[in-house]
């Protein structure tokens, strides 16, 4: 395939990220499969990114995530500086066939404003689409710019102007799904796990209370704001409470963390993360928000761990109730479902992941969308001629 894609990962974390990093992990999973299909990838990221690509450029030497929670007037220039570098690249070269953008809000706004002579753009929406009503509710990016969601439910809640630019959705994937149906089956422990950044939308406080009520050990694995280890958060002192996720943890979650029945282990990565997830009796998602993509959901299935979750967002698309997980609309019922999760078959979860959630499936879907976006972007030019 003769196609050169500028993959705009943004300035916040390296690719792959050092531990947690949802969007950057998606890109790190997608790019190798795109290159296997013959797509040339030019990565716009930070210089510390180590993902093998055909070409890389950067504005910042390392990820700027540490600045993300600062007041807007202190941090607003970071993403703009990165996008300025992307625009300069697009102005000075003619070999980019398409831009695949992953930078929230400012990526879509900047690339849409470049005009008809710029390359076509596919902007992937990784987040809650209610966040930017002024942008999404009034978007008019012409035929050159299209968006895709990471689930059908995410796009169904999008403003009409954004839906008008949509070319569909692509579910997330995980390398763990490759051969998951043939991998050795690890021994299961008696604990449940919530894997992800600790914040109100993920509902770790709900999970901690449930664990205490039904007596199921619970592991909370993920960062609190910029703090990836319990000792780092402890050393930060009271100043850390300026971060809203830190305040949520101290006020709502920490009172239930006793180090025995409920433990916070911080960010886990690599084999440690996989072993912890594979050994759990269930992955718990006590969601308070409409989860758009669910990376941790597909990772859990690939490792043979059933999902117990509030039926919100993408969860009903990813989980078959009674086969690969247990879903409910009643928060109080989650405790009973957690107790019943051990009855589900881990092999069913892994078979589902091996069919639906491999990187190859995701990459082929994106290649199809690339071609659709490019064909659509050419229509106005042909009519004008």
UniProtKB/TrEMBL annotation:
Keyword annotations: Glycosyltransferase, Transferase
Glycosyl transferase family domain ranges (all copies): 184-331
Pfam families per the UniProt record, alphabetical: Glyco_transf_4, Glycos_transf_1
Segments passing through the bilayer: none
Superkingdom classification of source: Bacteria
Molecular function terms from GO: glycosyltransferase activity
Residues in Glycosyltransferase subfamily 4-like N-terminal domain copies: 20-130
Name under which the protein is recorded: Glycosyltransferase involved in cell wall bisynthesis
């Amino acid at each position: 395939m003769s196609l050169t894609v500028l993959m705009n990962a943004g300035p916040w974390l390296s690719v792959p990220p050092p531990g947690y990093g949802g969007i950057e992990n998606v890109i790190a999973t997608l790019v190798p499969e795109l290159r296997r299909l013959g797509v040339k990838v030019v990565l716009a990221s930070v210089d510390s990114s180590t993902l093998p690509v055909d070409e890389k450029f950067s504005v910042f030497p390392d990820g700027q995530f540490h600045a993300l929670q600062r007041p807007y007037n202190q941090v607003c220039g970071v993403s703009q500086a990165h996008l300025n570098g992307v625009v300069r690249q697009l102005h000075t070269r003619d070999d980019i066939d398409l831009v695949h953008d992953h930078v929230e809000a400012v990526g879509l706004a900047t690339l849409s404003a470049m005009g008809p002579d710029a390359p076509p753009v596919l902007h992937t929406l990784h987040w809650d689409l209610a966040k930017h009503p002024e942008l999404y509710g009034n978007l008019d990016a012409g035929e050159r710019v299209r968006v895709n969601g990471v689930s059908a439910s995410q796009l169904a809640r999008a403003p009409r102007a954004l839906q008008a630019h949509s070319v569909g959705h692509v579910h997330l994937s995980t390398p763990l799904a490759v051969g998951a149906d043939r991998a050795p089956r690890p021994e299961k422990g008696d604990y449940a796990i919530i894997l992800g950044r600790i914040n109100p939308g993920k509902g770790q406080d709900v999970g901690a209370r449930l664990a205490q009520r039904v007596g199921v050990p619970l592991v909370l694995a993920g960062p609190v704001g910029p703090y990836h280890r319990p000792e780092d958060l402890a050393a930060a002192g009271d100043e850390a409470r300026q971060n809203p996720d830190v305040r949520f943890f101290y006020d709502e979650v920490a009172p239930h963390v006793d180090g025995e029945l409920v433990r916070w282990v911080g960010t886990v990565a690599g084999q440690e993360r996989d072993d912890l997830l594979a050994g759990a009796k269930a992955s718990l998602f006590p969601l308070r928000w409409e989860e758009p993509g669910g990376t941790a959901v597909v990772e859990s299935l690939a490792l043979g761990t059933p999902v117990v979750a509030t039926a919100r967002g993408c969860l009903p698309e990813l989980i078959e109730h009674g086969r690969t997980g247990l879903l409910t609309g009643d928060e109080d019922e989650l405790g009973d479902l957690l107790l019943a999760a051990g009855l589900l078959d881990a092999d069913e979860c892994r078979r589902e992941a091996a069919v639906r959630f491999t990187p190859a499936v995701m990459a082929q879907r994106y290649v199809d969308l690339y071609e659709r976006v490019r064909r659509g972007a050419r229509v106005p030019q042909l009519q004008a001629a």
